[in-house]
C-alpha cells in the first residue's frame, strides 16, 4: 500500500462524499447530522483552507479538511477533521492524514491546531492524538449527541505548530 496525500481534485468528490457521509451516518464522531450531495460536497470541500485526500491505487481512502477554528484575533488557530474509508481503517491512514495536516497548517500560517470535539468513545483517535503530542484540554460532559440520542463526553485537544 503506497498512500499519497494531496490536495483534492473535483474528480475525487464522489468518493470523498461517500466517505464523509458514511461517518456522518454512523453518528458517533462528526457533529454534522446531514449528508452531503455532490453539489453541497463541492461547496463544502472547496470552502476549506485546504482539503487533502489519501489516495491508494487511484482510490480515495481518506480525507481531511483544514480551516480556521475561529476568526479575527483567534484566526491563527486551525481546526481539522479526518475521515478514513470503512474497510481501510487500522492501516495508519489517519495518522498520515493528521501528520500531513500539521505540515499544511504550518505552511498556511496557523500557529496551533485545535480539535473542539473529540468524542471520548473514539479511543483510536484519542490514542493517535496522544501519540502525536496533542494536549487534552479537559472534558466537556455530554457535549456530543450521538445518533442513538446518547450524550457523550467530548475532549478538546490542541498542538502547537
Automatic annotation (TrEMBL):
PROSITE patterns membership: GNAT (PS51186)
Domain N-acetyltransferase: 3-158
Keywords, ordered alphabetically: Transferase
InterPro entries in UniProt: Acyl_CoA_acyltransferase, GNAT_dom, Mito_N-acetyltransferase
A molecular function GO annotation: acyltransferase activity, transferring groups other than amino-acyl groups
Pfam families linked to this entry: Acetyltransf_1 (PF00583)
Protein name (database record): GCN5-related N-acetyltransferase
Source species of the chain: Methanococcus voltae (strain ATCC BAA-1334 / A3)
